Amino acid sequence: MAAKKKAKRKPNPAFMKAMQPDAVLAAVVGDKAMPRTEVTKKLWAYIKKEGLQDKKNRRNINADEKLKAVFGGKATVNMFEMTKLVAKHLK
């Protein structure tokens, strides 16, 4: 019996659509239009570089001044809440 060829997952076009970050988010990820996936990657790179991931509960992000503006003034958000808050800064 021949093995079934695994269907390659097609990326969702909505995720790949370039979004424009507003000025607040651009301070962290840059001001070029990019897909949401790229915005998330750059956010995590920034969080790791600045050491903002909570040491005890690794799902939480402790915001510095730049991220506090993105997170609507919150000092700590969890990673699931982060994506919802970041979406408000994309057009």
Q: What key phrases describe this protein's structure?
A:
91 residues; mainly alpha; MDM2; two-stranded antiparallel sheet; 5 helices; 2 strands; 45% helix
Describe the structure.
- The chain is mostly helical and 91 residues long.
- It has a single domain, classed as SWIB/MDM2 domain (MDM2, Orthogonal Bundle), CATH 1.10.245.
- Helices cover 45% and strands 7% of the residues.
- The chain contains five helices and two strands, in the order αααβαβα.
- The chain has helices at residues 13-16, 23-29, 36-50, 65-70, 79-87, and strands spanning 60-62, 76-78.
- Strands 1-2 form a two-stranded antiparallel ribbon.
- It is globular and about 40 Å long.
- The N and C termini lie far apart (50 Å).
List the helices and strands and how they pair.
Elements: H1 13-16, H2 23-29, H3 36-50, E1 60-62, H4 65-70, E2 76-78, H5 79-87
Antiparallel strand pairs: 1-2
Task: Write a brief structural summary.
With 91 residues, the chain is mostly helical. The protein has a single domain (18-87), classed as SWIB/MDM2 domain (MDM2, Orthogonal Bundle), CATH 1.10.245. Helices cover 45% and strands 7% of the residues.
- The run of helices and strands is HHHEHEH
First and last CA, distance = 50 Å
Strand content: 5-15%
Biggest pleated sheet? 2 strands, antiparallel
Helix content, binned percent: 40-55%
Oligomer: single chain
Number of strands: 2
CATH fold descriptor: MDM2
CATH architecture: Orthogonal Bundle
Helix- and strand-based class? mainly alpha
Question: Which regions contain 5 or more consecutive residues with pLDDT less than 50?
Answer: none
CATH superfamily: SWIB/MDM2 domain
What is the tally of helical segments? 5
The order of strands across the largest sheet is 1-2
Domain unit count: 1
